[in-house]
Amino acid sequence: MNKNPVYIFGHKNPDADAICSAIAYETFKHATGQEEFIAARCGNSNARIDAIMDYFNTPLPQFIGDVTPRISDIMCRSVQSVKRTNTCFEALEKIDQHDVRVLPVIDTERRVEGLISFFQLGEFFIPSPKESRDLRRVHTNIDSIIRSLNAVPIHVVEKNYFEELSVHVGAMDIRSFGEHHKKLKTPIDRSIVVVGDRSDIQKKSIELGVRLLVISGGLSIDPSIVELAKANDVSLIISPHDSATTSWIVRTASQLEGLIETKIHCYQKDDRVSSIKKRIAHLEDPLYMVVEGDKKLIGVFSKSDILRPTRKKIVLVDHNEISQAVDGASEVQILEVIDHHKLGNIPSEQPILFINRPVGSTCSIIADLFRSQKIPLEPSTAGILMSGIISDTLLLNSPTSTALEKELLDWLEPIANVSSEKLAEIIFSTGSVILNQSPKAIIESDCKIYSENELTYSVSQIEELGFNNLKGRIKELKSALKSYKEEHKHFFSMLLVTDINAHDSLLFVACDGVLKEEIKFPTHSRFSTYLLKGVVSRKKQLLPFISSMLKNLGLKN
Questions:
Q1: DSSP calls for 300-348
Q2: Is the pTM of this model over 0.85?
Q3: Among 150, 300, 433, 480, which one is least packed by beta carbons within 10 Å?
């Protein structure tokens, strides 16, 4: 049985650890028999990530920018439908065979025209007692009656002509039969008479000139009756059913035309489930149509479909804050979180697997899972894990590094067949972000969004081999940071530029005056921005400072 995919996402604006941990965790899941888990990404790659993927001949995870539940996720694509020229009998057959209660009505181009429900058909077949004549009424043609009854045609006149007819059962005495028709005030030439082996009623019906004579019970017909029917242009057929069943089935041969409910509501497959849920809250339609183009039907859904929990499931790695997660994460089921950052605000309606360890990278956690469960590693997977560890810990030089990272790199090196130093050189010598990207792309390349009460703020980080590449770009970087803050309505935005050789950073800040008073770092004379000596970690060094600053301003609980 095929299971729905469960996508493993790193954070928006992914860094190497986010991408590498998603890939490695997919491999871990597959090794433990959980093939439905698939690595994905919700942001663009960068030169360093590309260099890692190229070196280990590993494709990037597929891009999925939004997991918001859409109508396409909940709609039924295999739709049973009818056309307005179908009969009630054909509609009832589909309702019974496919265990549905409602059928869309479409034209020959699959354009939706309305719907027909089991309840509408019920009202037609069981009208109000005051409308007893409606129990006899049928709008159809003889061909439809023959098909509905699976009858044997003996003599048929104008079988495709649609007309309003009245059904009668010839069960009374011959002396009363003619008078009964007069009382009902139904035109004899628009009457259908259902009768068994009563030859007197058969003969009288033909002589009166009924439109159709139906012999029930599969009984044979006297040749003289057949000849009389032909002489009088009266249609004659044999039904395999008894008289009561035959008369009921004849009524089901009515066309759907006059029963179709044309007041329907149509939606698009890309509509958000949350939005449509509000729009249909006060509607009572038994079924909602999903269309494209010129109202071409592609699916249907009911209120119960839209109220069911979403089938989309995801895993988050290297983050646990909704503001950093793939769009729509708050509207789907988060199955697991694997992370090494501070606790965020992930919503959960039920217990989930949540692994959060104070280590240098998420790849450290996943590598330790492989090691502790003695799962064999391919060289490429070992290399991917090493890359995430090296990138996030700056080859063990970051204050976030722990003894675990050193152990894991020593364990992974011989499997990946590459030294940590060589891999670090490949990763960190890849083209400068500052030289190769626009100011806006620099801000967004590894940007994390945080929330505090009702405020949000962003902290971006890039790593460079020295600060020389900043020359001539300070003004445009500050301008881009200010624009980013205003565009996303953040309380403030920061950009940390880290020199991975000197283990120092420059901090650019876009904020209001009251916040600037809380920043006590010295200013770098050459670059006119804050110099943070010995600071290389956003998580372990800069974020605690920000937290303290917000407390001083009374903005943090």
A1: EE-HHHHHSPP--EEEEES---GGGSPBTGGGSEEEEEEE-S-------
A2: no
A3: 150
CATH of the domain at 231: 3.40.1390.20
226 is a domain residue? yes
Best CA proximity match to 497, nearest among 548, 434, 547: 434
Residues in the chain: 557
Say which DSSP state 73 is in: H
Bridge pairing between strands 296-301 and 288-292:
antiparallel
Of 404, 428, 452, the position where a domain reaches its end is 428
Per-position DSSP letters for 105-137, written without gaps between them: EE-TT-BEEEEEEHHHHHHHHS--GGGGGGGTE
Domain that holds residue 451: 433-552
* Each residue's pLDDT tens digit, 370-380: 999 999 999 99
**C-beta separation of 363 from 388 below 8 A:** yes
User: Structurally, how many domains does the chain consist of?
Assistant: 3
In the chain, count H helices and then E strands: 21, 23
Indicate if the alpha-carbon torsion angle 320, 324, 325, 327 is positive or negative: positive
- Condensed to tens digits (0 to 9), the pLDDT of residues 223-276 reads 999 999 999 999 999 999 999 999 889 988 888 888 899 999 999 999 999 999
468 with 523, same domain: the answer is yes
State whether 437 and 535 are in the same domain: yes
CB 536 within 8 A of CB 394: yes
